[in-house]
């Protein structure tokens, strides 16, 4: 029997085929795997740049392109006959000599670009890599056939022109050198392209190289494994090097923090880390996030990754508020009563000296955030993230106003969610020692906790999570992106007893470059205070794929804007995009209702939601409407500059973050519209 590996591109191309063609192709691959006489036979390719490339007839007018070495066959692509032959002729395959990963080259395209590159650099004596000798180039894995082309390059633009044609393991170190980096820095970039260390690298050993490249290849030993690879979503099987490394690392000696922009695979890492801990850990695992909608998404995806019921039961998926609710309910022997809107209470407490919004923010972002229990503690506490100074007298007045509201809630037997979380953290912190033994069998702590969307958790929620898992190896694994923060929560984990080791993701595998670039400019691209000490920046954040530029359309009236939305969504559906792969988002409830009603009247059923509702979701095409001045940013969500200029700046960044999150949910095409004057957030 052949040893069969399947590429990520093969699964994507297979999924895009018509159902009858896809069915025939799957049957053919199964037969080939089992060496059936009825299975396809490898056919040699004339004039191939790599003699190890063959094709397999998998369906009527469709062929698979395979790389063959002895009994190993790697299914690289499935294409119409003529395209398959062309692909097989123009590509070559290598094993990177420095890190041992598989590399795919469009050799014909590189050959064609050489004359233009020679002409472009003829008038310049400067050479981009003139200061790097061949030996040093080879030491960072640069391919010998690429080297003559590199010697022609005189500007960064030359490297950018060939980037789409280069394997990432070639481009990453070359980019570092082009930016003035040292060989050591180039090696660090190259090191980020591998996830399995190798003492000895055999550049003729394709099978081992495929095993070292889980983002490109997955082996199928039998039909069950093959069908799983071909049917489950790609992220269940194929992990890029950083994703594989971080999710499968054997032991983190301290809490780990993974940050990265939209599309870098943070949630995928969190899911696979939870699965890894369930399979190899020593106790119950909690996969936590901040909203119940995301909990349902995570649970569904985790079911796809873990097919062993016993292992799956070791992972609990919940949001932090529900965890707090359960802890308090178990302690008190009854379900706690939560309060909905507390605005009236804060208005009563405000009087003439403070605004109700100011008092609420002070309570949540200073007092509950730092778990202050007395006036003395509050008087001594700093107030990070605020731009107004409070005298001891004013602080005393604030404390009395807070006491009034808390007293009213206590008298009515009600609590806010943040109060509940804070109480649960106290209860769990006091009892963790006992719960490690057999004294409280109904309330077990977790051995491992994985946190997704960490940027939106409040400090009180972090205190609860810290109390829910005993400190030790692999205790806390955290993923998040401060640039996607949707709530006014800014917390450095080290200040809450969670000293993290931080890792950063730079490559978006989901977003095309055009949407990514638009999103970065929309977000502002500047630094924000992050989950770790200091700030997080978007410098170096990039994509490996290209697509259409986002469409930004302005209309004279709201009615014309809705008509434009209907026209574009109708066109998308006519193009064959499934309705569940289309989403419409807006900032206000009124706009959401208007868009939903108009689409339904036209017989169109797609997801229509507010910007908040797009968090954690992905769609092929997204329309974000109503991005007009006076709507985005939402005026009612902005603190007056006269009251607190720092808080207003944070509010504006939060509003930018909302729009950034919604726009970066589009994997293929983004449409943004407004009527009247455009939002000041939109890039010019």
TrEMBL record:
<protein>
    <recommendedName>
        <fullName>DNA 3'-5' helicase</fullName>
        <ecNumber>5.6.2.4</ecNumber>
    </recommendedName>
</protein>
<dbReference type="GO" id="GO:0043138">
    <property type="term" value="F:3'-5' DNA helicase activity"/>
</dbReference>
<dbReference type="InterPro" id="IPR000212">
    <property type="entry name" value="DNA_helicase_UvrD/REP"/>
</dbReference>
<dbReference type="GO" id="GO:0016787">
    <property type="term" value="F:hydrolase activity"/>
</dbReference>
<dbReference type="Pfam" id="PF00580">
    <property type="entry name" value="UvrD-helicase"/>
</dbReference>
<keyword id="KW-0413">Isomerase</keyword>
<feature type="binding site">
    <location>
        <begin position="260"/>
        <end position="267"/>
    </location>
    <ligand>
        <name>ATP</name>
    </ligand>
</feature>
<keyword id="KW-0347">Helicase</keyword>
<dbReference type="GO" id="GO:0005829">
    <property type="term" value="C:cytosol"/>
</dbReference>
<feature type="domain" description="UvrD-like helicase ATP-binding">
    <location>
        <begin position="239"/>
        <end position="525"/>
    </location>
</feature>
<keyword id="KW-0378">Hydrolase</keyword>
<dbReference type="InterPro" id="IPR014016">
    <property type="entry name" value="UvrD-like_ATP-bd"/>
</dbReference>
<dbReference type="InterPro" id="IPR027417">
    <property type="entry name" value="P-loop_NTPase"/>
</dbReference>
<keyword id="KW-0067">ATP-binding</keyword>
<dbReference type="InterPro" id="IPR014017">
    <property type="entry name" value="DNA_helicase_UvrD-like_C"/>
</dbReference>
<dbReference type="GO" id="GO:0005524">
    <property type="term" value="F:ATP binding"/>
</dbReference>
<dbReference type="GO" id="GO:0000725">
    <property type="term" value="P:recombinational repair"/>
</dbReference>
<dbReference type="GO" id="GO:0003677">
    <property type="term" value="F:DNA binding"/>
</dbReference>
<dbReference type="Pfam" id="PF13361">
    <property type="entry name" value="UvrD_C"/>
</dbReference>
<keyword id="KW-0547">Nucleotide-binding</keyword>
């Amino acid at each position: 029997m052949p040893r069969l590996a399947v590429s990520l591109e093969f699964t994507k191309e297979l999924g895009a085929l018509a159902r009858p063609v896809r069915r025939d192709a799957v049957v053919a691959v199964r037969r080939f795997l089992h060496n059936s006489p009825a299975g396809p036979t490898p056919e040699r390719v004339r004039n191939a740049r790599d003699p190890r490339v063959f094709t397999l007839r998998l369906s009527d007018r469709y062929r698979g392109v395979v790389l063959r070495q002895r009994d190993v066959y790697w299914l690289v692509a499935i294409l119409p006959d003529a395209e398959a032959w062309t692909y097989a002729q123009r590509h070559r395959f290598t094993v990177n000599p420095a890190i041992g990963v598989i590399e795919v080259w469009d050799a014909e395209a590189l050959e064609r670009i050489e004359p233009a590159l020679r002409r472009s650099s003829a008038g310049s004596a400067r050479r981009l890599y003139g200061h790097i000798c061949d030996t040093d180039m080879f030491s960072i894995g640069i391919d010998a056939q690429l080297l003559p082309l590199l010697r022609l390059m005189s500007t960064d633009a030359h490297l950018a022109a060939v980037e789409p044609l280069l394997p990432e393991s070639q481009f990453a170190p070359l980019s570092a050198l082009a930016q003035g980096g040292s060989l050591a820095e180039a090696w660090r970039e190259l090191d980020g392209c591998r996830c399995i260390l190798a003492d000895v690298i055999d550049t003729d050993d394709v099978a081992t190289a495929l095993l070292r490249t889980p983002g490109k290849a997955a082996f199928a030993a039998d039909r069950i494994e093959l069908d799983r690879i071909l049917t489950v979503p790609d992220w269940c099987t194929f992990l890029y090097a950083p994703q594989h490394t971080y999710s499968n690392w054997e032991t983190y000696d301290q809490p780990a923090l993974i940050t990265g922009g939209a599309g870098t695979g943070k949630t995928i890492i969190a899911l696979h880390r939870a699965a890894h801990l369930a399979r190899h850990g020593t106790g119950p695992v909690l996969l936590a996030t901040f909203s119940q909608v995301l909990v349902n998404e995570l649970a569904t995806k985790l079911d796809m990754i873990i097919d062993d019921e016993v292992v799956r039961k070791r992972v609990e998926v919940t949001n932090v508020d529900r965890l707090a609710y359960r802890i308090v309910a178990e302690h008190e022997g009854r379900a706690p009563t939560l309060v909905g809107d507390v605005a009236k209470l804060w208005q009563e407490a405000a009087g003439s000296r403070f605004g109700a919004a100011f008092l609420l923010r002070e309570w949540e972002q200073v007092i509950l955030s730092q778990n202050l229990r007395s006036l003395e503690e509050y008087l001594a506490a700093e107030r990070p993230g605020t731009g107004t100074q409070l005298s001891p007298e004013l602080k005393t007045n604030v404390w009395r106003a807070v006491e009034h509201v808390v007293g009213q809630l206590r008298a009515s037997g009600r609590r806010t969610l943040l109060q509940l979380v804070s109480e649960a953290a106290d209860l769990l912190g006091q009892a963790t020692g006992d719960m490690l033994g057999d004294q409280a069998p109904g309330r077990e702590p977790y051995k491992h906790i994985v946190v997704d969307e960490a940027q939106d958790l409040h400090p009180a929620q972090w205190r609860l999570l810290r109390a829910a898992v005993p400190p030790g190896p692999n205790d806390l694994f955290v993923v998040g992106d401060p640039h996607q923060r949707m709530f006014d929560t800014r917390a450095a984990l080290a200040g809450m007893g969670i000293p993290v080791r931080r890792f950063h993701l730079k490559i978006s595998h989901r977003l095309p470059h055009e949407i990514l670039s638009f999103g970065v400019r929309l977000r502002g691209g500047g630094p924000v205070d992050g989950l770790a000490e200091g700030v997080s920046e978007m410098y170096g954040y990039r994509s490996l794929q290209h697509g259409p530029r986002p469409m930004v359309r302005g209309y004279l009236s709201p009615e014309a804007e809705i008509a434009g939305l209907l026209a574009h969504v109708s066109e998308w559906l006519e193009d064959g995009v499934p309705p569940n792969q289309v989403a419409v988002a807006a900032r206000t409830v009124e706009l959401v209702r208007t868009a939903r009603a108009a689409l339904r009247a036209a017989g169109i059923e797609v997801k229509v939601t507010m910007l908040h509702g797009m968090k954690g979701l992905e769609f092929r095409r997204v329309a974000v409407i109503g991005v007009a001045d006076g709507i985005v940013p939402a005026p009612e969500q902005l603190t007056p500059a006269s009251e607190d200029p720092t808080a207003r700046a944070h509010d504006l960044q939060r509003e930018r973050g909302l729009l950034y999150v919604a726009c970066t949910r589009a994997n293929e095409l983004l449409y943004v519209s407004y009527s009247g004057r455009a939002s000041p957030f939109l890039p010019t």
